[in-house]
Amino acid sequence: MLDGLGDRMERLGRSAAAGMAEFGLGAVLLAQVMFWIVAGPRRAQPVRLEATFERCMEVGIMAVPIITLMSVTIGMMLAIQGIYSLRIFGAEEQVVLGVGMSVVREFGPLITGILVAGRTGSSLAARIGTMRISQEIDALSVMGINPVRFIVAPALIAMVVMVPILTFWSSIVMLTGAGWYISLDLGMSAGAYIDRLTEVVRVGDVMHGLGKSTLFGVLITLVGVINGAMVSGSAEGVGKMTTRSVVLSICAIIVTDMIFAFLATRS
Amino acid sequence: MTHAAAETSSRYRPSAADLATASPMIEIRDLVTHYGKREILHGINIEVRQGEIMVIMGGSGSGKSTLLNALLGLLRPTSGSIRILGQDLNAITDIERTKLRQKMGVAFQGGALFSSLNVLENIMLPLKEHTRLDRNTMRIMARMKMQVVSLAGFENLMPAELSGGMIKRAALARAIVMDPRILFCDEPSAGLDPVVSSAIDDLILTLREAMDMSIVVVTHELESAFKIADRICVLDKGHILTIGTVDEVRHSPNEHIQNLLNRRAEPEILDPDEYLRWLTAVNQ
Hints:
heterodimer; A: mainly alpha; 9 helices; about 85% helix; B: alpha/beta; Rossmann fold; 6-stranded mixed sheet; 4-stranded antiparallel sheet
C-alpha cells in the first residue's frame, strides 16, 4: 500500500515538474519573440511581415463568419435568458444592463478566445508538430533561420493584433443579436436600446474585455507552440498534442478569465 | 565494365595525394554524445578535406544519424570538438553559428521541404533570409540551381505534388542555393528505385565537380556508397570500425564490416542478466 502511495506521489511530482517546465518554456518563448521583434531588424533578420499578414488573415479575417454566427446566437440567448430571469422581479427593462456588461466584459472575450483556441490554436499545434516530425524545424535551424523568429513571432503578433479585434467585433454582434431580440420581445426601439447601452457600458468595460482578449491571444499561441514542439513519433503524436493544445488553451483561458475578473472587480 | 561503372570511373576523383594536401573542412576530435544517460558515440575522430566525398556508413543503431545531428549542431556533444571551416561549432556565438551555417548545405532524408511553399519558394528561402538580393535575382539563382538538379519546369509545384526523386532533387537544390562549401546529405538514395537512386548519386558527383565542395553523405546503401565515396567511414555501435577508400573498406578483414557488406546478419548476444533487467525495467 505504501509502495502504491509512493508511486502515485512520484507520478504527481513528475507531472508537477513537467508542468513547471512547460510554464518556463512559455516564458522563454515569449522572451525570444520579444527579442526578435526588437533585435531582428538590427541583425538583418526581421520578423517576416508577409507571414505576419498571412497569419492575421488566418486568425482574424477567416474566423469572422464563425465568430459572427456564434456571437449573434449567444447574444440572442443572453437576451432570452435575461428577460426570462428578470421577469420574475418585473424588471425586464434592466436586461440591457445585464447583457451590456456581461457581453463586453465576459462573453465577447471568452467566446472569441474559445473559438480561436479551437480553430487557430489547434492548427498552430498541428502545423508545428507536422513540421517537427518532417524535420522542417531542423531544416530551418541548419539554414541559420531561427524557428522562433520564422514561425512563432508572426503567429504571436497576429494573435495579439487580431484576437482583440475579433473580440470587439464579437461583442458588437452579440449586442446586436441581443438588441434585436429585446426589441422584438419588449418592444424597445433600437434608439432606446443603444441609448441605454451607452449609459451602462463604459469605455473601461470595453478596455477590460480587450485587455483580457490580448492575454488570451498570447496564451493560445504559447500553448499551441509548446504542444506542437512536443510532438514526437508520427501522425498519431500530432493528433494527440493538437487535442491537448485545445484542451489546455481553453482551460488557461477560463482560469485567466476568472483571475482577471477577480482582480478587476477588487480595484 | 557496365555503362554506369564506366561513366562513374570517368568522373573526376581526387587522388589520395590531392586529399592529403587539401585543407581540412571538418575536424571531429574525440566526439562523445549521449541521449539521456546512454552514450551513443564513443570518441569519434574524423577529418573531411576540401573536395572530398566522405560517406558515413553503418547499420541501424550504429550512430550515423547521431553523428550527423552533432555535425549539424542539432545535438550538443558531451565532450570532444567539431571544427567546421576552422570554427569550433559548439564554442562560437549564435551570430557566428548563423554565418557558418550559410556555408553549409543540408539535404534531409525526407527533403524537409516546407509544405506551404512551392518548389521555387523553398529553394529561394535561404536567399530571402540571408541576402539582400532583389526578388528577380533570387528567382534567377534558384532557377539555376533547379537546372543543375534537373528540376527545371517544376517551380510552381507544391512539395506534396512531387515524387520521391523530385523531393530529393529539390532538397539538394535548396541545400546548394547559397553555394555552400560543405554539403551534408542524409540518406540521399533511401526509398528510391535503383534508377532514380543512381541518378541522385550522379548528381552528388556532379555537384562536387561543379562546385568543389566537400560532401558528407550518411547512408546505408552499399552500392551508392561505393559509387560516390572517396573515403568511407564505417560506424558500429558508436565506434569507428574503419575509415578508408572504397577498396580498403571492401577488402577490410574486419568481420563486422564484411557482415555489413555481405548483408550477413550478426547473431545477437544476449546477456541473461541484462535481459532480465530490461524485462523488469530495473533501471527505468
